[in-house]
Amino acid sequence: MTPAARVQAAIDVLDLVIEAARANGAPADRIITDWFRPRRFAGSKDRRAVRELAYRAIRACGDMPASGRAAMLRLAAGDPEVTALFDGTRHAPQPIDPAEPVATSGVAPAWLMKRLAASGIGEIEARALLDRAPLDIRVNTLKAGCLSLPEGGERTVAANGWRYPPETRIEDTDAYLSGAIEIQDTGSQLTCEVLAARPGEIVIDLCAGAGGKTLALAAAMEDQGRLIACDSDRTRLSRLAPRAQRAGVSRIETVLLDPGREAGELASFSGQADAVLVDAPCSGTGTWRRNPEARWRLTERQLARYVETQARLLDIAAGLVRPGGRLVFVTCSLIDEEGAGQAEGFLQRHPGWLVRAPVLPVGAPRGSGLRLSPYRDGTDGFFVARFDLL
């Protein structure tokens, strides 16, 4: 592909990304992968170049663009080399008409910027949410004896964390294929450390998803005790079993939950858990480095639903913890309604709980918890709070 043809390809991909964002469809990375599948003429350099152009354009636009071309024109407005490729040659985009629409620049839609500002996230810190994320891995201590780490990494502040350049093909390494390492952001690893899961305990991961944090908890527990992974998404939860097998984990129990009926389905664990992790569904504002188009998908109504769901899950989790046990609340969000405000609401509804401030090597206090951000801590954005039952 010529450089100009790559720009047109990125425009075509962006049209699909924008369409999916409007319809709450597939994420950009999957769209890009699927777009290239039938186009075997595109080599690895072409795929990499088109992907980079598409993501650069996504990051350059604040509001959702009207089209892929409008998004690429926003990128071209600050890049003369890209502008020159709108030359109208074969497979290239047509020359730029000065009167045609150009997407607006910015970090996020105006209503989201107001929410971030109200949560103490200024312009500079907000812009860091769109930086390209590094590749972080967690050493799986259950298989550390057979570990040979890939070259090019450096230690992170997480107990078992290493960081690599974002383009590292870590999934092709023997360490990954053997289960000796897992891909996991440093901030995500640190939130698991706050739970302080120990061997022999009963630990519940209430919103396990595909099990990234579940596997970290299993390693901390040395695969001893009871670890219950729960989620209402059958597809995501089904991915945990093969991941656990690769990681050498054998003691995970899975519970598929029916939304709205979780309390009844978990009644057998009432008052028994030593620790419960609530990694609640949220807006994902802290993960924009990895999913920059996610800021176009979010609406105020969706945010309100997330806040309601988080409060309900916290109330359910509170009933699962034994006296003397602990509950850790996590969201990958920098909006206070999903962090400090949510924690404060929990304490008001449940006066028998004590705040135990997380002690981590990074992060800044926010309400009853701690907030991590890309700008200050080099991690994804997280809020984490720990509560102990008296």
**What is the N-to-C succession of helices and strands?**
HHHHHHHEEEHEHEHEHHEHEHHEHEEEHE
Task: Tell me the number of structural domains.
Answer: 2
Strand content: 15-25%
Instruction: Flag low-confidence runs.
Output: none
What fraction, in percent, of the residue positions are helical? 25-40%
**Rg from alpha-carbon coordinates:** 22 Å
Classified by CATH, the class of the largest domain is: Alpha Beta
The CATH architecture term of the largest domain is: 3-Layer(aba) Sandwich
Q: Which helices and strands appear, and what pairs or packs with what?
A:
Blueprint: H1 3-23, H2 28-36, H3 44-60, H4 68-76, H5 80-84, H6 110-118, H7 123-127, E1 135-139, E2 154-155, E3 161-164, H8 174-177, E4 181-183, H9 186-195, E5 202-205, H10 212-220, E6 226-231, H11 234-238, H12 240-247, E7 252-256, H13 262-265, E8 273-279, H14 294-297, H15 300-318, E9 321-331, H16 340-349, E10 353-355, E11 364-366, E12 369-372, H17 374-377, E13 382-389
Parallel strand pairs: 5-6, 5-8, 6-7, 8-9
Antiparallel strand pairs: 1-3, 1-4, 2-3, 9-13, 10-13, 11-12, 12-13
Helix pairs in contact: 1-2, 1-3, 1-4, 3-4, 9-10, 15-16
